[in-house]
Structures are given as structure tokens and as C-alpha cells.
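hi! just following up on the protien thing from before. the input was this:
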Amino acid sequence: MILNCEEVLENLSCYLDGDGSEEVRRALEEHIAQCRRCHVVVDTTRRTLRIVTDVEPFGVPLAVSARLYARLQQALATR
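and the predicted 3d structure came back as:
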């Protein structure tokens, strides 16, 4: 199974939570090991989650998450 960057983003949450099939997890890890951009996204997301989970939870405004997702999609489209 070979995944592209968009598929990595679609599966990122499950991957970081340790969910999903072993086959998908292996494919994600293979892609992340070879793709600098996805490696940075995963690493930054992990670090951000550590910071966020060390403080009281808060809701991310819908507008912020929508803008972030749009930027990630735009970055992948220009790749």
C-alpha cells in the first residue's frame, strides 16, 4: 500500500491516536520517513499536541481549523 501526502493528512489523527489498521500505519510510517513535508507536519502536530495537552483544554474556533485545513490542502496542491 502506497499513500500520497493527502492520504497521510486524512489519516493523521488516527495515526497519532494509534488507531487504524497495521497496514495503513506501516504505509503512513513509510511515507513519513521518505517525505520531508509530511515528516514536518507529523512532528509539529505531535509537539503541538504535547503542549496543548499540558494545559487546560480549549476549543479551536471553526474558522481557525477551516483556515488551517485550507492552507494544508493548498500546500499539497502545489506540490
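The mean pLDDT is 88.
The longest helix spans residues 36-53.
cheers
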